[in-house]
Amino acid sequence: MVKYDAAINKCFPEREYFFPGGHGGICSSTAVSANFRKIWIAAGLKRDGKVKSRAYDFRHHFACSNIMRWSAEGKNIHAMLPYLMKYMGHTGIESTYYYIHLIPDFFPIYNELASSTEELIPEVESYEI
Q1: Which of 24, 94, 104, 111 is deepest in the core (most CB within 10 A)?
Q2: What Gene Ontology molecular function terms does this protein carry (predicted)?
């Protein structure tokens, strides 16, 4: 990434975005997808027709891998998510929490985490209307 940053800085020295578009603005998702396909094909990687790899898959893998690693290291996931949120460019923590529900292996860990916070929410009495 350091090499990329130095190289792209020569083309767009006043750039606002790490991955700028053709005229220095934001790189569109269409451009990212098109370039990803070109690189995938140029690398000689196959497509099986059923599942198409996408650039987004790398982002998803990055988020999920970090969450699982933090869990394995015994770190407080709730305390770490704001760091992941900022790193990924999310404007709200809800976007980052999205990744947790996509990790099947994380469900038992999540249940354990959730049970540790149960006492924070008081029991609500049931009343008939």
Answers
A1: 24
A2: DNA binding
